[in-house]
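Question thread 4412

I'm putting together a teaching handout and wanted feedback from people who do this every day. The idea is simple: show students a protein as raw sequence, then show them the C-alpha cells that encode its fold, then repeat with a second protein so they can compare. Below is the first pair exactly as I plan to print it.
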Amino acid sequence: MTILNLHPLVLDKELAVVLGLNEALILQLVHYWIEINKKNNRNFHEGRYWTYNTIDEWHEEFPFWSNSTIKRTFKRLRDMNLIIVDNFNVYQMDRTLWYTINYEELEKMIKDEKNNSATDATLDKNDAMIGSKGDDNDIQNEPMERTNMNSPLPEITTKTSTEISNQSIYHEKSLKDDRGIDGRNPSYEDFQERYKKVIKNCELYAIDEKYQVAADHAIKLLLLDIKIAKE
C-alpha cells in the first residue's frame, strides 16, 4: 500500500489560519459527515442536519490524538460557538453526543478575519510608503503613535538586564530607607501595593522566561520614577 492509496484528512488552509490546526481538522470532518447526512436526508432535527459519535469513535478518525486532546478541541469549538452539541438518541441511557456546525457564526468569523487581514495589509502598505519616499522631515512629522508602534523592541541582553535590575534595586532601597520616627514607611508600603497589582495584571508568565526578570525590574523602575516625580 502506498501513501497515495490512503484516505487523507481534508484541511482548509484558510480555516486553519482562523481557528487553529486541530479545530480546523475536526470542524472539516464534522462538516463532511453533515453533508453525507444531508444527501441521504437523515439526522435532521430542529432545522439542522447533525452527525453523532462517541469520543472513542472520533479517536478512530484521529488516531494521532489522545481522547483528551479531542475533548479539548471540541470544547474550544463549543466555546467559540462554532459547534452545537445536543442529544437526539432514542434511548435516554444512550449518552452519545450529536454535533452540528453553526455556519452563521463560522461565516462571520471568517469575514472578520478577512477584514482584519485587509486592514493589516493596508497599514503595512502605508508603512512601506512612508519608509520608501519623503525626506527626514516626513519621518519627523510622522504621528507619534505610529512611530512608537513600529519601533523595534530593544534586545534584552545580560548587560541591559543587569543595568535595569541595579537601577530598580537602588531606587527601591532609597525609598525603603526613608522611614519615619515610628519606623514605618507608608510611602514604601503604598508603592509595594501598587507594584503587586501591576505585576499581577501584566501576567509576566505569558512572555519568554528570559525576559521575565528584566520586565519585572523595568516595571518596578517605572513605578518608582512615577512616584518620585509625583513627590
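The second pair follows. I'd like the answer to focus on this one:
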Amino acid sequence: MTERDALNHHVEADEEVEQQRRALSWNEAKKPFLLSVAAATALVLAVLAGYWLGQPKYPSDDSVDAGFARDMSSHHAQAVNMSMVVRAKDVANDVKTLAYDIATTQENQRGQMMGWLQQWDLPLAVSGERMAWMKKTGHNHAGLPQGQMLLPDGRMPGMASTAQLRQLENSDGKAAEILFLQLMIVHHRAGVDMAKAAQSSGDQPRVVRLARSMVEGQSGEINLMTDMLKKRGATPWPAAS
C-alpha cells in the first residue's frame, strides 16, 4: 500500500468513526428531545384546558336564572314601593319596622339580581312573556290553574293592582295597616312560589342560594304578618285573591 493509499484509508476510517459518533449522539439525544417535546405539548394542552374550564359559564337569555332575576326584581320593586308608602303614614311602630325590613332586604336583593344580569351581559328588561321561565320548572302559583303563570289582566301573581295601590295611598291608620299586611301576604306568597321554582331549577349556585333565603325569609314574614292581622281583628285574603 502506497503512502497515499494509507492516507486515504485513514481519512475514510476517520469519516466512518465520525458518522458512527454522530449517529450515536443523535440516538442518545433523540429520546430526551422527544420527551421534552411531549412534555411541552402536554403543558400547552393543560394550560388551554385550564383556560377553557376556567371560563365562567353564564346563563342564557331564556334561562331560569335570568328569568327569575328579571321577574323577581320587578316583583321586589312593588314590595319596596308599598313598604315606603305605608312607612310615611300614621301607622303603628310594628308595621313601620316591618315595612322598613321588607324595603331594605328586597332592595338589596334587587341590586344583587340586576348586578348578575349585567355581569351575564343580558338585558335588564324582559323581552318576552313574563314568568315564561317558571313554566320550565314544573312549579305553579297557588290559586291559579296549572300552567297559568300570569293573572287574567297580565299581572304577575302577587302584584297589587293599580286600584289596590291607590287605595293604600289614600288610607291611613289601622285601615292602612290592615290593607298593607293583606297585600304584602299575597305578594309574599307569590314570591315564595317563584323562589321555590328557582331554588329547584336554577343552574347558578348563587341564584339557588338567594332563592332559598327568599323562601325562608318571606315564609317567616307571612307568619308574622298573619299574627299582626289577627291582633287587628283581620285575616289574610285567600290564595285565589
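Top answer:
Good format. For the second protein you could add a caption like this: The two ends are 122 Å apart (CA to CA). The chain has a mean pLDDT of 86.
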